[in-house]
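Dear U.,

For the methods section draft, I wanted the exact inputs and outputs in one place so we can describe them consistently. I've listed the two proteins in the order they'll appear in the manuscript figures. Please don't edit the token lines directly; just add comments below if something needs changing.

First protein:
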Amino acid sequence: MVTPINSYGKNSLRRRSLHEEVADCVRTMIIEGELKEGQRINEPELCLQLDISRTPLREALKVLHSEGMVTIEPNRGAWVATITAEEIREHFEIISTLERRAAELTAIKASESDLTRLSQLQEKLEHHYQAQDRHEYFEINQHIHRLIIELANNESLTHLHHQLMNRVSRGRYLAIGMQHRWDESVDEHKALLEALLARDGDRAGRILAEHVMHTGETVVKELEQQKKVG
């Protein structure tokens, strides 16, 4: 169920612009499947749901278009972007390589405070897993991956990773909807943290690369199965 943007209160809107808040909300709706791939975005209806005017929604859609999550056709409207199994496969191959390098660098560069942050996030991740709270789990999962990229302190790597992750975020959410993959993912995250705490860059890089590829393979298999059924 969508929470109206204006119900978040004035304080949150002082920190960020309204269209950024709207972009976050619509992005989540796409990731979690409330807005389906290929679906036309009904702007008047969405404005009513979010309790906003048309202008911030259109600005938000431009942001999502730049991320590859929405396609916009002049004078026709906006649609949720589609992505093929082959595109997913290619994107995950690149993300796997980027995150492997990021983990190697993080093991070397991270401060003790940084590693404590990662440990705390892992605790939250496991808590949400035990509660089977997929939404909160996914948010923390995203945070961990972004933090490892950030700690690598490589601007080009960060920029490319951000672009690709936006394109596959719906697929990543789909993967944890499969219990066997969710179970595996938690164990892989535990092993990753252990390697980072030991400052074993080679092991951390290998674990994270394999973790990303396992997720990609799961998503591709599911999309191909859906195509056969469809």
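Second protein (the one for the lower panel):
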Amino acid sequence: MMRVLWVWKFGVTASILFYDYWDRPFSVQIRQGMRSLLSVRVVITDFCPGGPCASEPAHFDLSGTAFGAMASPGQQEKLRDAGVLQIQFARVACDYSGKTIAFHVDQGSNSNYFAAVIEFEEGDGDLAGVELKEASSSDGGDEWRAMQQSWGAVWKLDAGSELHPPLSIRLTSQYSGQTLLAKDVIPVGWKPGATYRSLVNYL
């Protein structure tokens, strides 16, 4: 039986795997070869261009921390220096150790256009839909408006008119259909490049 190291690390994967199957950040459990007893849970955040990533259907470019976590005690540097390894992997639920969902506002956002990276969705966290609602206003800005997935974990809304904060964001899970509400998570005076943390997450 594998001894799982319940720590979250980061990596990137082949674009074939990232875009054809899981086009948003996801978690995998990885171990070296067939006989290793150690595995590591890795959050895949992006695809890696060129080299083996361009030609292999499943190729993971891991951080040094994630690479070393698959090694026996005292052998971390030796494993990191080994280069390309044969591995086994399986997709697993993400575990962010009690973090709540956060929204990192894209630098290109402005009063008429809002985009954000949605981070730290635990467990049942693949999103089928994201909606945004403005603060109630005289021009009817109190309805939920569907956002579009731009790429990966980035969701956007081209409002076409000024948005009235605070902004609430509603998330719908792809698999269970569970809905979470991050009420007023984007405050009055929000800034591009800032990160705003909600009070909710999937179990």
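Candidate sentences for the figure legend, describing the second protein: DSSP finds four helices and 14 strands in the chain. The chain has two domains: 3-92, 102-197.

Thanks,
Y.
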